[in-house]
Amino acid sequence: MTQNATSRRHPALAFAIACCVLAAQHHAAAQFLGIFGDKNVKYKLFKDPAGRFELEYPTKDWSPLPTGGSAIATLARKDGMATVVVDLSKLTEPLAPAEVATNAQIELEGLKEQQPNAKNFASEMVDGKAGRASLIKYARNGSNGPERVMRYSVGVGLDLYRVDAVVQEAAAAKYEGILLHMLLSFAAPASSATSKN
Amino acid sequence: MSKLVIFRGDDVESEIHLGSRPVRIGRDSRNEIVLDDKSVTRFHAEVRPENGGFVIVDMKSRNGVWMNGRQIKGKAPLMLGTTVTLGAYELALEDDVATDLDHDSAVQRSAVGSTVAAKHRRPTSQSSTQRWSTGSPASDAKRSAMFWSGLALSTLLLCGITYGVVRYMFRPAPVQEVAVVPPTPAPEPAPAPPPVDPNKEAIAQHLIDARAAIDSREYARAVRDHLTPVLELDPSNQEALDMKRQADEATASIAAAAAAAKAAAAAKEPAFVETPGITRRPGETQADYSARAGRIQTNFLEGNRSLEKQDYPLALARFQLIERDQKDYEGLEALIADTTAKQRKAVEEALEYGRRAEGNNKFADALKWYQAALRYDPSAAGARDKIAALTERVTNDGLALFSRAEVFRKRNLNAQAVELYKQAADLLPTSHEKHREALEWLEKLKS
């Protein structure tokens, strides 16, 4: 009798623990976004004219800019305090899931090599709309003074997207949440379909 | 002139004219009369002339010589008409009538049917063994009377013979061995053959077999299997005693010859030569000792060579072989202890050098040092663990390099990819699948 009661209690106990864990994770995520995000910001969808990708950007004070070089899209605040640049390069083969982390490491090494004066590098893996990606944060001195950079790198099929979000150090606390939202909203369905082929 | 006729049953076995020389009778082929039957001893009896007549002498035969139903002791005169029994045979001394009788007498004897075939058939009446008259002039009446009386006697004799023949035809099957037909008519009925003693038969057979064994030089078998049983049954059996003595003498002679041969061989063997430091084991021959000494010296030499080459396991194995052959050979214990100490020190040094190389990320060098340590002492668990750990680490590093190379290649950064593929190929074990893939990509990217 007691044994039956105990065995019945075990699934219930496990369920309760699982709920607590999920709740804690959700709470942590909400807290993370709460630090950087702003619930009052409204976003709209930017679609690449070539149909390769899309991402959300704030409706107010943000606008696409003309692009050049390897950049395929640029979005910036009107006051120039923050900028998001999308860069595309081609892969000879799609990256294997196990190679995403290796690619993030290579990205980090490349940034350090290209920007020897940059500092406070931090790298993590994130899951955005485009799939598993690497997010590297670091600080550097820009033409207008110190700034913080977040590089979001994701391989989609034979396309390797790098999305750089740059904000002035002075406005970092205010806009970093918005920039992170923009990065995680990045999606490249067309490329994904291509890679499957 | 007399002759000796030998009968076996009804058949004449043999006959011999007796002269001035003795006639030996027996189973042995050297006898003048050979009677090949087990009932007859090899030298059974002898008939020799004596005092104008003949005597028969028992040559200590097994079954004896029987005369008129009595066994003779030593010798006995052999009279005409006397039946003498030797085993299964009967002897009779006869006048040689074939030569003495004239033609008429022969015809007359034939007419009365005494010996129709004297050479081949046993005489059926004493008339055949008695001396026949050669005849003399007589009157007609006397002749007539003799004729009629002879005719009457002949008729009676014929009737007797007929009766005998009829009895003979319907008689029970004769026993061959003891077929003795008593002479008829005889003054006394023929004696029954002596009772057959089963022990005697066994003894006889044993003696025959013993002789055969002795002839084939199987003296021990002759004594063990035949003569001993005979002497148990009859301790005074002279023939057995003689043969046993003969066998014993022969055996002793063989043993003496073998001992002499062994002594001669030992005398020929060279003096035992000992190598200093190698003691001879009890019962060890010169050849075995020399072989052992050779092994010890070779192992000592080779062991020291191996020690010079830092091949400690082989050196120790050699020294242990010496230890097995000669426990305390020329400071062997100290040599083994010294070698073991050197081995331990070499292992420790190799491990230390390996650790240093590993700390400097010189994994290939580190691996070589660890492998050297293991070579110095195959049982060095530390070296084995280090090799395993380093191999795992190097493999993981190789895989990481391979993965980086793959990403660089996919990002079309081939120069970096080639370099990384090279490093990965160097680190990964040749048996690893990624090692082969790295080499393949190197080939493709170079081209």
Tally the helices of chain B. 13
Give the mean pLDDT of chain A.
82
- Measured on Cα atoms, how large is the radius of gyration of chain A? 20 Å
In the predicted model, the low-confidence regions of chain A spanning at least 5 consecutive residues are 1-7, 26-36, 191-197
Mass-distribution shape of chain A:
globular
User: Could you give the count of β-strands of chain B?
Assistant: 11
Share in helix of chain A: 25-40%
Total beta strand runs of chain A: 9
Mean pLDDT of chain B: 82
Oligomerization state of this entry? heterodimer
How much of the polypeptide of chain B forms β-strand, as a percent range? Answer: 5-15%
Describe the protein in words.
The complex is a heterodimer of chains A (197) and B (447). In chain A, 37% of the residues lie in helices and 38% in strands. Chain A contains 4 helices and 9 strands; from the N terminus they run H-E-E-E-E-E-H-E-E-E-E-H-H. In chain A, the strands form 2 sheets. Chain A has a 7-stranded antiparallel beta sheet, sandwiched between helices. A two-stranded antiparallel ribbon of chain A has the order 1-2. In chain A, a hairpin with a 2-residue loop joins strand 8 and strand 9. In chain A, helix 1 packs across helix 3 (172-184). Chain A starts with a helix and ends with a helix. Residues 1-7, 26-36 and 191-197 of chain A have low confidence and may be disordered. With 447 residues, chain B is an alpha+beta fold. Helix content of chain B is 55%, strand content 12%. Chain B contains 13 helices and 11 strands. In chain B, 26% of the residues are buried. Residues 98-121, 124-138 and 177-181 of chain B have low confidence and may be disordered.
